[in-house]
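Quick note —
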Amino acid sequence: VVQVFDLSSNSFNGTLPVSLIQNLAEGGNLISFNVSNNSFVGHVPVSNFCVGVHKNSSLRFLDFSSNDFDGAIETGLGGCSKLEKFRAGFNVLSGNIPIDIYDAVSLIEISLPLNKIDGTIGD
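Predicted structure written out below.
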């Protein structure tokens, strides 16, 4: 069972396959997911890790940094109760930081530099 999934610093592009994320998350043993420093596009698929049947109780680290992800950060991070670090800086993310991110009780780092995020923090 995969616990650490790291594709960082490669030349991947396109969208992240939802089926891949769902398969990794469904096992419930995934601790770390890192796809930083690639050229992935689309939205950051938070809900596929933290919501419903795909909720992963072991996940501690999510890193989507330095890609071309865009749009708003999905709600759902609050469902990852053991999540400690969420990184999605150096993308083209916009909109508000979802309020449920503060429900992730183990979260010690939120890193979102160099995006287009706006609005009120905590709304």
